[in-house]
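Handoff note, outgoing to incoming analyst
You'll be picking up this chain. Sequence as last confirmed:
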Amino acid sequence: MRSDALPAAGPATLPPQGARAVNPWVIALVVALTTFMEVLDISIANVALRHIAGDLSAGQDESTWVLTSYLVTNAIVLPISGWFAYVVGRRRFYLWCVLIFTGSSLLCGLAPTLPLLIFFRTLQGAGGGGLQPISQAILADTFPPAKRGMAFAVYGITTVLAPAIGPTLGGWITDNFSWRWIFFINVPVGLIAFWLSNRLVWDPPHLREAQRALRERGFKVDYFGFFLLALGFGLLQLVLDKGQQEDWFESAFILRAAWLGGVALLILPFWELRQRDPMVDLRLLQNRNFAIANVLMFSLGFVLFGSTLLLPLFLQTLLGYSATQAGMAISPGGVAILFAMPVVGMLVSRVDVRKLIAFGLLVSGGALVLFSMISLDVDYWTVALIRVIQALGLGFLFIPINTAAFTGIPMIKSSSASALINLSRNLGGSFGIALAASYLVEQQQRHQAYLVAHVDTSSGLGAAELAGLTAHFVASGHSALQAGQLAMGTLYGMVQQQASMLAFVDAFRLLALMFFLLLPACLFLRRPARDQAPPPDAH
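Most recent structure output, in case you need it:
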């Protein structure tokens, strides 16, 4: 891909002396490839758990550790990726992450037992934890601020599209080949990405200079900070992933994990702010734009992953869609994002990002309101259309939020900033999945209790419905006793179905409200200058 005819990369990405300059768009596509591969693996294994459990002679509950192990190590490595990039070199750390992720993917596909698969997934999560933030940091340094919008569009397509198509792709691969191929497909992609990254990606001059200065003055590894971070984020992810399954705080295990992780996370900021070389640079949150952008990105992850959980569940449990059909109803949203992201990338340099973010919140929130108004008679095209509207709104959020986040951030801090903004999105996604599932169950029980208490089978509509069902079953050849029992069971099933429908309505309405409440935050963002020069480097 190297050619003297290609436009040279900017000063932030000049390769070492003697190496040819590379078109920054080539670099963008290469790092987007690794990000897509990593984000896809967060969700692609979800639909294969039943097959994994059966093939490896394990229980369904045991197989869920295939997901949990990946998410826990991913959550630990992601926030400290900026520190690793600063200390050992961003390019070196990035290549090691690609290599670890690719190698562990191969081992996951070959795993003969569930414990080995869980161990290899742990390694895969550790390798994948550094790919998202470092990819974004590379893009932030490769493109000048005026052109970052289009670069983040490429990155945004991968991070928003991958979780949307992951379950559908995973189901198709598992049904037509084997669950092992959901891991094997990473190997050729990872090898290509490693080869291209090794040839095209270099540490920028300011980062090489910072590493030289760091070696000269020496530094102390923040071991206690790492311990607090690993304990806090690791246990937090464990609580979010296992909470619903263990009945949340009714479980002594979840309660202890939540207390221990919460204490670690409370101590972490006080400790890190006193360190010269902290594992997580929380001082970046003193930048108003960066702090608000993290709140917005957390909310984006919450709504994106929460709605991606709710919609297929609604289609499959209440409308009888298969996994493939549910995926096809969601996939038009992915196509909409493919078209929206480049448009938004161009608009970022021309339109106030605050207006773009407000527009995205309104459109996506409005789509969620439409989801809260659907009924059990809704057709495929209505669902697909509303999902497209929601996806268009999401497309107007990811790029402007990232652009606002990096406003005023020194280039030397881009890796640390990227680690924090990606941590916010991932945590938002974990909270969104966990709380949406829990809220759905709670609301379903509440609505069911209310409906059961108000369905009177001795008079009124309840009695008429019961009589009609009884007559139907008698006409079908059942005895009067059998017909009465079947009619009562059918009526109770109808009550359960309506309770579930109302619970989904409540959940979609809550997600919409979350976006609407964020609108005032846009007023506090500073608008990035269209042609602003990079801020001076700071150590």
